[in-house]
Design goal:
Helices cover 64% and strands 3% of the residues. The protein is built from 19 helices and four strands. Helix 5 packs parallel to helix 10. Pfam families: Zincin_2 (PF10103).
């Protein structure tokens, strides 16, 4: 029987005691300082300036860094993350060798479970500080558009009078916002660095291209309480990382699809305060009755008056959620198939992994904490079952060919009801000569030609109208001459 610690495979965000919950409403929320998802708070200008003074304390050169004027002060984020991580020992050569050999072994086994070839990426063993250094560039790509558009959404939400009053202070407010985002990001990344297990943990490709990385020290800590040999745990994690890298290497559109979903969501960010106005409209704050006034204040304290952050492009989050589910579901399937007959503890580790995913070690938790985007837990179990049924219906080669083009992928509805998706694959399989990529190319070419024809017809129509207009002018001129 597998025993587990309370954190679920060793992954957790901060404790859930009442003090931490109160503190983390703003600290875990990149938008908390300006009254975003973390709540308005009750302070006035004095409290705001006091908070600003606390932020400035100990910041040093971070305020004057080139990134201080951007949407996120990444210099400050890096400093805070390193403080969170603390002193870490260099990665042992024995750990590096173990990771290299485990990935090599996992790659051999994965060849039996997927048509996608090995990525050929360099195997590396990282400590927490190296994870931070190597993954920060990709986190920047994910965080920057959200922070930038959140700042704009906050400004758009202000009354015109407030915008005019803030005019002279806009530079300072932008710097405060940049520092606040940097502080939140630094705390989040520092926490994540001590608990993540590989370069693309959770299905997020944040590691540099060409690298398959595992964090042996974090893995050893996460494995405490599991009745599983350390070597088997290492091979399992290496197999998951190697499988993901095969996807990201041989499905070239996959990474940009993830990033573009985040960017699309960010461009539609908006802050809704209508529920606050509705709540306040129910009270007559000018009542002369002190007891009634006290009752109203008590009622207000019990209400959720924090602004609601949403996006006009909410469909982008659904696509992101589905894509992450498909990635991790595919990885679950091929790793289990590759290892189940070779590693006796595969079933126990799979169960531990599901527990980890359910208790905080998941993509939606990482996104909410680091990037500031909240979405439902990806339906990984449903995606795993979909991929399994696809393989039974059409085989491994056709299953993996679904990744050839984004239009071939299942959509959110297919995860709950895969029968129609599988029927579509079976219908396509009626002809051995059917090439879906070629068909899409032909369709795109046809549509482009049709568009060109329409443009040409429109231009010809314009020329005809012009000639007719010239003829009418000549006739009118002739008539005038006759007269």
């Amino acid at each position: 029987m597998v025993t587990m610690n309370s954190n679920g495979f060793g992954f957790s965000f901060p404790n859930n005691d009442d003090d931490d919950n109160d503190r983390n409403r703003n600290n875990n929320d990149p938008f908390g300082f300006f009254g975003g998802a973390g709540g308005f708070g009750g302070g006035g200008l004095g409290d705001l300036l006091n908070q600003f003074g606390q932020m400035l304390s100990g910041m040093g050169d971070s305020m004057n860094s080139p990134e201080a004027g951007g949407p996120v002060n990444y210099d400050l984020a890096t400093r805070i993350a390193r403080q969170q991580i603390g002193r870490v020992a260099p990665t042992k050569q024995s750990d590096k060798d173990a990771v290299t050999e485990s990935i090599r072994l996992a790659e051999l086994w994965l060849d039996d479970a997927t048509e996608l070839p090995t990525s050929g990426h360099r195997a590396e063993a990282w400590n927490a500080e190296e994870w931070l250094e190597h993954t920060l560039p990709m986190w920047k790509r994910l965080v920057s558009p959200v922070a930038e558009h959140m700042n704009q959404a906050q400004m758009d939400n202000l009354p015109e009078e407030a915008k005019e009053m803030m005019g002279p202070m806009s530079a300072m407010m932008n710097q405060m916002s940049s520092m606040n985002f940097g502080m939140q990001l630094g705390n989040a990344l520092g926490d994540l660095a001590k608990q993540t297990l590989s370069g693309s943990d959770f299905g997020l490709p944040v590691a540099p291209a060409g690298v398959a990385a595992v964090l042996p020290v974090n893995l050893a800590e996460a494995s405490k309480g599991l009745n599983v040999p350390a070597q088997e745990m290492l091979v399992y994690i290496c197999a998951r990382e190697a499988a993901r890298q095969r996807l990201f290497k041989h499905v070239p559109w996959l990474l940009e699809r993830l990033v573009s979903s985040v960017e699309e969501y960010a461009t539609g960010l908006e802050i809704d305060t209508s529920h606050i106005q509705d709540a306040l409209g129910q009270f007559q704050m000018d009542t002369p009755d002190p007891q009634r006034l006290q009752e109203m204040m008590s009622e207000l304290q019990g209400m959720d008056l924090s602004p609601r952050i949403g996006s006009r492009n909410a469909a982008a989050v659904s696509r992101l959620e589905t894509l992450l589910a498909l990635i991790e579901g595919w990885v679950d399937l091929v790793v289990t198939q590759a290892m189940s007959e070779r590693i006796p503890s595969t079933a126990a580790i799979n169960e531990a992994w599901r527990r980890r995913r359910a208790t905080g070690g998941s993509a939606e938790q990482a996104f909410a904490k680091v990037v500031g985007i909240e979405f439902n837990a990806p339906k990984v179990a449903e995606a795993t079952e979909l991929w399994r049924r696809v393989e039974v219906a059409v085989g491994i080669q056709r299953r993996d060919a679904v990744w050839d083009h984004p239009d071939f992928l299942p959509v959110a509805e297919d995860l709950d009801n895969p029968a129609q998706f599988i029927d579509g694959l079976l219908d396509e399989g009626g002809s051995d000569d059917f090439d879906p990529i070629a068909e899409i190319s032909k369709l795109e070419k046809f549509l482009a030609e049709e568009a060109d024809k329409k443009d040409g017809s429109a231009e010809a129509g314009d020329d005809t109208d012009s000639e007719k207009s010239d003829g009418d002018t000549t006739d009118e001129s002739g008539d005038d001459t006759t007269k």
